[in-house]
Design the sequence.
């Protein structure tokens, strides 16, 4: 499992964002985005089929007046052996995500 966050308003990677990987309300892994806005290895080598959530602490990055203090991305794993990459494009008043490669 990998992720990255790009700050589209600033045009740069979003470094230092805390991210949690959860399933069924249980935390599986946590990490922080590096200087390139990436977490290159989050969680186990393979994920069991099921529904997972990535929770991004965007409030700490955007500041105390952040409109989105947290971004949660829920996704379904069908093939746990396949690599999963879920990026987030972030700005002060919007965010988007997609299935990455």
Sequence:
């Amino acid at each position: 499992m990998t992720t990255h966050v790009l700050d589209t308003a600033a045009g740069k990677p979003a470094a230092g964002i805390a991210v949690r990987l959860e399933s069924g309300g249980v935390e599986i892994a946590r990490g922080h985005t590096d200087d390139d806005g990436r977490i290159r290895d989050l969680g186990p080598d393979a994920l069991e089929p099921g529904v997972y959530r990535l929770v991004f602490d965007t409030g700490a990055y955007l500041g105390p007046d952040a409109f989105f203090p947290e971004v949660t991305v829920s996704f379904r794993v069908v093939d746990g052996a396949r690599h999963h990459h879920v990026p987030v494009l972030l700005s002060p008043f919007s965010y988007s995500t997609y299935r990455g490669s």
